[in-house]
Structure prediction request, 191 residues.
Amino acid sequence: MKLVIQGKNIEVTEAIREYVEQKIDKAVSHFQGLTTEVDVHLSVARNPRIASSQSAEVTVYANGSVIRAEEKSENLYASIDLVADKIARKLRKFKERKSDRGAAKTSVAVAEQPPVPLPNGNRVVELPTQVIRNKYFAMPALSVDEALERLELIDHDFYVFRNADTGEINVVYERNHGGYGVIQPHDVKKH
Prediction:
């Protein structure tokens, strides 16, 4: 397993490096067969008003999937402890799901609904004048259930995927008041 440790606004000392290696090795030790690479990003916010200014983010690449966790606290070592525990839980859940693939699904996360018509306004969309960052990633076709599983693994609010049923790009997201939603493309007819 390859372990990459990076720091932002912090020098990654030998003591910090050893602590991260110890905690991450322990967190992924039962999943060595699945894990190919682990990226750890440590950062310190320079704004004194931010109470939880020390963060640790871990990204695990396991059998083509990405599993991510982030924790912030007032102490870098505490953040490392918290994120190591969180990533271990997510890896355990990931491994359980992989072994239960053959089992039938017992819940439906998203109900099928027809697309909602777009409003007829003359609204002009304003985009930023400059692209800040580009990200590139493989986008295999997935079912909505598989996309939801990946959403939970990456610890984000949304997940972009190619729908296996339609071949279109969709977004699955966590709703503010619970549950999940799916954003699907809608053909706009010109008047």
Observations:
- The CA atoms of residues 19 and 143 lie 39 Å apart.
- Residues 102-111 have pLDDT under 50 and may be disordered.
